[in-house]
Write a structure and sequence with these properties.
By secondary structure, the protein is of the alpha/beta class. The chain has helices spanning 4-18, 23-34, 41-51, 68-76, 93-107, 120-137, 188-194, 220-227, 240-243, 258-261, 274-282, 287-293, 366-381, 393-401, 413-424, 442-450, 471-484, 531-535, and strands at 82-87, 112-117, 151-153, 159-164, 177-181, 207-212, 234-238, 314-315, 325-331, 340-347, 353-361, 385-388, 406-408, 434-437, 455-456, 459-460, 496-499, 502-505. The protein folds into three domains: 54-300, 3-Layer(aba) Sandwich (Rossmann fold); 311-486, 2-Layer Sandwich (Nucleotidyltransferase, domain 5), CATH 3.30.420; 490-543, no CATH class. The strands form four sheets. A seven-stranded mixed beta sheet has the order 3-4-2-5-6-1-7, sandwiched between helices. A seven-stranded mixed beta sheet has the order 8-14-11-10-9-12-13, with helices on both faces. A two-stranded antiparallel sheet has the order 15-16.
Amino acid sequence: MVKIEGIIEQINSRLNYERMDSDEEAEQVMESIAATSPETRRELHAWIERFFKVGIPQKAVCEDHCAPFDFLADAFFEREPNMLVYASRGSGKTKNFAILHHLNSHFKPGCWTTNVGSIEAQAKRCYDYMKHQIAQLKGYEKIDGEPLISSTSWKNGSKVEILPGTLKQVSGPRPHKAAADELDWWDWETLMQFVNMPSGGDGISAQTFYSSTRYKSYGVMTRLLQEAEVRRLKTYSWCIYEVAERCVNRDCKSCLLKDKCQGRAKRSAGFVPIDEIINSRFLMNDEETWDIQQEIKEPSKKGRVYSDFGEKSIIDFYEFNPSWKTYACQDFGFAEDFPAVSLHVQLSPDNRVFVFKETYDTGISISTLAEEKYKSLHNKFHHLAWICDPARPGDISELKKAGLPALGHSSKILDGIPVVRRFISPPGKPESDLYVLRSACPNFIFEMQSYHFPEKAGVVLSEIPEKEFDHGPDALRYLLHFLFGARQKEARFKRMVIEEETLVRESAVVLGSGICEEEGERMTDDDGRPVAKQMGLANVFRE
């Protein structure tokens, strides 16, 4: 069999110069080539260039990047089951998806692909690319009916669906191939529903494709990049220099982009004109936006509430120490999208905090969680106290009914955040005093790295954080403020005793809002029962 690349070269040459014996003969040859599936990387690139008239860059310019075509070739030849594209804005990510979906449908009979965009407009962009490709193939394409944004079908049984990225839309289909576009605007719950979509069969491998520019230091894309190795996601990264056209006849010394480019565009072989890069992208963006969206540098952490939380606080091994004090802290969920969160924490003798377990649950009542999950955890770890959001007294009562040492503690956000920060980055210490077990607390780690202030154009608008990614961080704040809140500062906990159902302190140490405001105050719950007796707090706090 003559290789496709050779045939295409011959056709291009003979049609232009020598002509074939007839136009009919040329058409027959081209139709044969259009129907022949590429078998090598070079054949695939030549086929795309000839029929879609798109030249996808095959050369990496930056040392730690790849060529955009690397992704397309690996995806088409089904070399990887899960693939993540992290690339600059306007670098052809969505167009590559459209080409891939078209190739799979054209050459793999019965292949079902679902492409999900972050919003409807993003999804439609992929459809528009595909519609243009179908027109490019003219009579060589075997489309069944008219291409539609909802579903485009081929006569060989293949189809491509284009959907917006909502929880409802990703909950039903079970295609062979599923693609998620512009992930940084997705929410995590929708993504977790999406990952269960692909299902292989009929000789077609199940594959999942993810793609996005990263716009912020928190959110879905950051988490996937951090967890790529654990999730076995093959990552493909490229920036503006991999897709730039080669810079020629331009003096680097006088170029406005010289300090950023440093000659890299001289080695490029892409499609984005240099003038467009300079005039429409570089000059029109501030430096931070350029670095993040075009050179795919890591975004600034300045908008994050706990910007210092990172690898120094994340550990890969932890052994439970039964001689250390153990606590739980709770944030109550109130709707399907807002989970009930419990964190399980040990406090070392030198006041280092170890978060060794998490639970995140949605759609389950607190009473059910208390009886079916929290009670067994309490029997295993013997928590001294279960510190909760005080705004939900009814839920606290449900925990108490299950025998948990539950206590509501009031902690204003602006009072509690500095306490948590002091443990993440203790003054005068290079290491952290807050440690989180990576394998057992992935959701909490994600929220700590995603909890952020409202911002616009890189400017923080308020000192009160956004109400998202706050469930685990809020729970930890309740606990640390309860134990080490600003009202204690230099004070230390003294031994607490129970005398005739009355909780008394030995010293004038203030234990925090909502616990003991006046020395010797009787501590009772809403039912008039002594809090100390119910919680078992005798001997909790000792020097």
